[in-house]
Design a protein that fits this description.
Blueprint (H helix, E strand, L loop, with lengths): L7 E10 L6 E11 L4 E5 L6 H8 L7 E6 L2 E2 L5 H11 E4 L11 H11 L4 H15 L14 H13 L5 E5 L7 H18 L3 E4 L3 H4 L4 E6 L2 E7 L6 H16 L7
Parallel strand pairs: 3-8, 3-9, 6-7, 7-8
Antiparallel strand pairs: 1-2, 1-4, 4-5, 9-10
Helix pairs in contact: 3-4, 3-5, 4-5, 5-6
Length: 259
C-alpha cells in the first residue's frame, strides 16, 4: 500500500553529452516524485533518456544539473562514505543481464551483499530462506549460474537485490533477456513483492506486457516526460496494457517502434 510522503524526488534533471556546438541533451529537465510503495515504470523510444535517468538515480553517472533526493537528502552532495551506503544498502539494482558471479552458487550470490556488510549469517540465512521461498528458487540455491535458466538467474538476481531491504529497487529492462513465460513469472514475483511487502520499484522497460504490472508509468521522449498513466484501482492488467499501447503508438507510430 502506498504511504504518504515522498521517497524519491527528481528535480529538473538534465544530462548533456558532447561539447560546445555538438551537445546532445539526453535529459532535458525531468522532474517527478516516487512515493513509498509505488511500482513506477519508465518507458520511451530508444535514445529517449530512460536508461540515463535510471543511471543518474543510481549514481552510475552524474547529471549535468538538477537534483535527486532520497528522503529529502540530495544524493549528489553525498561524500564517499554516504555514497557507498547509498549504493550498497539504500538502493537495489536489477540488471537486464543478471550480473551474477559465475564462480558463486545462487545462495552465495544472494548473500554476497550481506557478507560484505558483515551481517550475521543466521540473520542473513533467515532472510535468504524467506526470499527464496517467495521467488521459488529454493531448489537451485546450490547451483551455479551456468546451471540455471535465464528466468532462474533473474529471480536469483532479484533475491540478491531485495535481501538488503533497499529503500527503492531500480530495475533496468529486467525482462529483456527472458522468454515470455519467464518474463511473466518474474513480473508476477516483482508485483507480489510490491503489493505484499510494500517494496518500492522503479523499472525501465520497453515491454508493454512488463509495464502493465506497474501502478504508474512515465513516458519519456527526447529527454522530457511526454505522458503519465496511472492504473485505476479496479482496472485489470489487460485494460491497462491496452492503454499503454495507445500511448506508445503516439510516441513512435506504434508499439513495434518503441525499443
Amino acid at each position: 500500500m502506498v504511504r504518504q510522503g515522498k521517497l524519491l524526488e527528481v528535480q529538473d534533471l538534465q544530462k548533456n553529452y558532447g561539447k560546445k556546438n555538438n551537445i546532445t541533451k539526453a535529459l532535458n529537465g525531468v522532474s517527478f516524485d516516487v512515493l513509498p510503495g509505488e511500482f513506477l515504470g519508465i518507458m520511451g523510444p530508444s535514445g529517449s533518456g530512460k536508461t540515463t535517468l535510471l543511471n543518474c538515480i543510481a549514481t552510475i553517472i552524474k547529471p549535468t544539473s538538477g537534483r535527486v533526493l532520497l528522503h529529502g537528502k540530495n544524493i549528489s552532495a553525498f561524500d564517499s562514505k554516504d555514497l557507498a551506503e547509498y549504493r550498497g544498502s539504500r538502493i537495489g539494482f536489477l540488471f537486464q543481464d543478471f550480473e551474477l558471479l559465475d564462480n558463486l552458487t545462487g545462495q552465495e550470490n544472494i548473500l554476497l551483499p550481506l557478507s560484505i556488510h558483515g551481517v550475521d549469517f543466521a540473520k542473513a540465512r533467515a532472510k535468504l530462506d524467506e526470499l527464496a521461498g517467495f521467488l521459488e528458487i529454493t531448489d537451485i540455491l546450490h547451483k551455479f549460474p551456468s546451471q540455471m535458466s535465464g528466468g532462474q538467474k533473474q529471480r536469483v538476481a532479484a533475491a540478491r537485490c531485495f535481501i538488503t531491504d533497499p529503500d527503492i529497487v531500480l530495475a533496468d529492462e529486467p525482462t529483456g533477456a527472458l522468454d515470455t513465460r519467464s518474463a511473466r513469472t518474474l513480473m508476477n514475483k516483482l508485483e507480489g513483492m510490491n503489493r505484499t511487502s510494500g517494496r518500492t520499484i522503479l523499472m525501465v522497460s520497453h515491454d508493454p506486457n512488463a509495464a502493465s504490472f506497474c501502478s504508474r508509468i512515465l513516458f519519456i521522449q527526447d529527454g522530457v516526460i511526454f505522458h503519465e498513466l496511472r492504473r485505476k484501482h479496479d482496472e485489470t492488467r489487460e485494460k491497462f496494457y491496452e492503454r499503454i499501447l495507445q500511448v506508445l503508438a503516439q510516441l513512435g507510430g506504434g508499439s513495434a517502434n518503441v525499443l
